[in-house]
Amino acid sequence: MILIKSNNDFKLKSIISILYQKKFSFVIDKSAKYFFELDLYFDGKNLKINSSRDSKILKLPISIELFFSEIKNLLINKFVNIDDFKYEPVRQSIIYDNRIANLNYIHNIIISNLILNLNVGVDKFFLYQLIWPDDKDIQINKLDTHLTNLKNKLKHELLLDLNISSLNGIIKLRVN
């Protein structure tokens, strides 16, 4: 999750629409949980994009592809360190012991929510709704299967034992 802020609410609404189309994980509510922030500052014919360590100035108008590419470039190689592995939200990957595992869309939603909620865990029903919002018939065993597949993938590709516990419908990533 990336917090997106802007000095122009009208233009931010258009950008939000683009980010949704690209399935980019972001929030605009400062009270929500997120990994990093981006500040979009519109100044006449320019757009300045600021991240914690870099910034980029783009001339307006710009193409959607260029805009999205520049956002990714600002956030690429930004990691979240968890215990003895790293999570890279933009590349949707886990790095452990100099090995990289690329996550699919579902596995990325699972791991990002587990990391964002390390202390409290994630409600399985909430996570299910994030992944499959259109499902009418909720089958939690489908989520359990994806959790198992994620753990097996990381064990196989990285030799990483992901410790996930489940109690009363809350799943939690266990770290030292």
Characterize the structure shown.
- It contains five helices and twelve strands.
- The protein folds into two domains: 74 residues, no CATH class; 94 residues, Winged helix-like DNA-binding domain superfamily/Winged helix DNA-binding domain (Arc Repressor Mutant, subunit A, Orthogonal Bundle), CATH 1.10.10.
- It is of the alpha+beta class and 176 residues long.
- The two termini are 23 Å apart.
- The strands form three sheets. Strands 2-1-3-4-5 form a five-stranded mixed sheet, covered by helices on one side. A four-stranded antiparallel sheet has the order 6-7-8-9, covered by helices on one side. A three-stranded antiparallel sheet has the order 10-12-11.
- The mean pLDDT is 94.
- It is globular.
Roughly what percent helix? 25-40%
> Strand portion, in percent?
25-35%
Class of secondary structure makeup: alpha+beta
Give the number of helices.
5
Provide the CATH architecture of the largest domain.
Orthogonal Bundle
Spatial strand order of the main sheet: 2-1-3-4-5
The CATH topology label of the largest domain is Arc Repressor Mutant, subunit A
How would you state the average pLDDT, rounded?
94
